[in-house]
Design brief:
- By secondary structure, the protein is an alpha+beta fold.
- The chain has two domains: 72 residues, 3-Layer(aba) Sandwich (Ribosomal Protein L9, domain 1), CATH 3.40.5; 74 residues, Ribosomal protein L9, C-terminal domain (Ribosomal Protein L9, domain 2, Roll), CATH 3.10.430.
- It is built from four helices and nine strands, in the order ββαβαββαββββα.
- The longest helix is centred in the first third of the chain and has 31 residues.
- The chain is elongated and about 125 Å long.
């Protein structure tokens, strides 16, 4: 069955396109929910007018999404996560956390399913996410992962070590004097 799509539908088509779908899918899902209009021979002129209106609406929507993309790119995004002293995260950064960080930075909600991260993020650093805002608009957004909670320990100062090496020498000299005194006392007097 041929239908005119009123909205972008994943794996089916874009707004304003006439597509061929299964009859049951069109009658039971697309048309009752207002996502599509059935195309018949008698309604060709009406469909052409609706298609023109939907094309204008799609163009406006694309322009709005482009301005949103520019706003997202212009704001720095920082995600704070707990990590070890070496910079390894406890867990990994997900697209949900990236979406929340973008919402905090720009006050614009982004669906987490539109954010794609190539690898698992398990350490502190700078990474890139691909955000598909619209079928025609994809942006690449850099974000930074900062560690919090654990800091590297500072090595102890060298002065206590120097004092520790001098102390045994003094004790050894004192022990030698005490032993010498004991030896002289223990020796019987010969006479």
């Amino acid at each position: 069955m041929k239908v005119l799509l009123k909205q972008n539908i994943d794996r089916v088509g874009r707004m304003g396109e006439i597509v061929e779908v299964a009859g049951g899918y069109a009658r039971n899902y697309l048309i009752p929910r207002g996502l599509a209009v059935g195309v018949t021979r008698g309604s060709v002129k009406e469909i052409a007018e609706q298609k023109r209106v939907l094309d204008v609406k799609a163009e406006r929507q694309r322009e709005q999404v482009q301005s949103l993309g520019e706003k997202i790119i212009s704001k720095p995004v920082v995600i704070k996560a707990r990590c070890s002293a070496s910079g390894k995260l406890f867990g990994s950064i997900t697209n949900r956390q990236v979406a929340e960080a973008i919402a905090e930075a720009t006050s614009e909600e982004i669906d987490r399913h539109k954010i794609h991260i190539d690898d698992r993020i398990r350490s502190v650093g700078t990474y890139t996410a691909l955000i598909k805002l619209h079928p025609d608009v994809e942006i690449s957004k850099e974000f930074e992962v900062e560690g919090e909670g654990f800091e590297a320990e500072e090595p102890p100062e060298e002065e206590p070590e120097a004092a520790a090496t001098e102390a045994p020498v003094a004790v050894t000299e004192a022990n030698t004097e005490v032993e010498a005194a004991q030896e002289t006392e223990e020796q019987p007097e010969q006479g």
